[in-house]
Amino acid sequence: MSTQPHTTTPQDRSDDEEPLLSVDDLRTRIRTERETIHAVDGVSFTVNRGETVCLVGESGSGKSVTCESLTGIVPQPPAEIIGGTVEFKGRNLLEASESTLRSIRGTEIAHVFQNPQSALDPVYTVGDQLVEAITIHEEISESDARERASELLRQVGIPNAPTRIDDYPHEFSGGMQQRVAIAIALAADPALLIADEPTTAVDVTVQARLIELLRELTDGGMSVLLITHDLRVAAALADRVLVMFGGTIVERGPIEALYSQPAHPYTRSLFDSYDGLSRRGDRSARGDIPTDGCRFRDECPHAIDACAGGDQPPFYTVDDRKTHGASCLYYGPEHDPAPILHDDAAVNTLIEEPTDD
Ligand code: ADP
Ligand code: MG
């Protein structure tokens, strides 16, 4: 493995166009009776128009709190957004009023969650809920809205949409409920879809179909911020990947670059321990993570004294790719990353596996 160049990477940007979403130094902490958790601790990234960015990392790394901080849906308290900017279409959402945020949520930025029930009201038919979501942002007659609702159900792959529109959520299977939830999210034609583990609660076959649906939607030009702990889901959908650990992003890059050469020791451990399907335990339950320097250093086989203290290490380029960066001192001018980049076997196995089961 060759020695890497020693420049730091700028905020990743795939072209000159202004990003749709630009997050800078986001910080959200959560106060519990026992402790203060630095759930999001200086997170920066962008999502460009038409791009799918995937936030990966094990349970407890801060993925959900990051995404829920963007539009202020993270429960405050116990959470508190203590710093950063979230620019969406040129406006800082962290300074927006609650009424502005409410009007942006569901129209400009839609959320889909792991559990579709959270988006569905059991006492209304899915048609009524879709019509409501459509008419919130559009001056449209009731009958046109119903027509569009039916079309949305068809688009997300609900068979017999014109009939099923009058059914209640409980009359759908879990996978179909998630499709309905996605249809509701799409009703307002949002510029950004934030999907938090949307395929996690369903079985593998349904998961493959939902991935197919999401792929069609992303091909259609919508921007998507997708959260997953499942590297295979990310492989199927992402243009760019952000790897999160301990409330920080530790590596970022285009999917092909990052998957062919995972660089940060945490990313490498994530790939090495990946068994195809299951998740690792919630690390937050496994003891304290440092809140300065490199958050991974206590578990890193390559840690050196310089990994402790101060800010998170800067993002250094990996293999001369400006858009692929790792927040790890081994990629900086003082060190040689060779000891980290030793074994590509596990990674190659993962990439060669089919993405649909
Ligand atoms: P992920 O989505 O990556 O699994 P989260 O963003 O949900 O992780 O959580 C990040 C950290 O914040 C974890 O340590 C988690 O335990 C903690 N956390 C999240 N929500 C709460 C809450 N409501 N109360 C206490 N701790 C929380
Ligand atoms: Mg989560």
Order of helices and strands: EEEHEEHEHHHHEHEHEEHHEEH
Would you report the number of β strands? 12
- Biggest sheet, spatial arrangement of strands: 6-7-8-3-9-10-12-11
Mean pLDDT: 86
Low-confidence stretches: 1-5, 10-15
Plain-language structure description:
- A hairpin with a 2-residue loop joins β4 (about 80-90) and β5 (about 90).
- This protein folds into 2 domains: about 20-240, Rossmann fold; about 265-350, no CATH class.
- α4 (about 140-155) packs across α6 (about 175-185).
- The relative contact order is 0.16.
- By secondary structure, it is of the alpha/beta class.
- The protein has helices at about 65-70, 100-105, 125-135, 140-155, 160-165, 175-185, 205-220, 230-235, 255-260, 265-270, 345-350; strands at about 20-30, 35-45, 50-55, 80-90, 90, 110, 190-195, 225-230, 240-245, 250-255, 315-320, 320-325.
- It has an 8-stranded mixed sheet with strand order 6-7-8-3-9-10-12-11, with helices on both faces.
- The model is unreliable at about 1-5 and about 10-15 (pLDDT under 50).
- The two termini are about 35 Å apart.
- The structure holds adenosine-5'-diphosphate and magnesium ion.
- Adenosine-5'-diphosphate (ADP) binds near residues 37, 57 and 59.
- Adenosine-5'-diphosphate binds near residues 32, 37, 39 and 64.
Task: Produce a short descriptive summary.
The protein has eleven helices and twelve strands. With 357 residues, the protein is of the alpha/beta class.
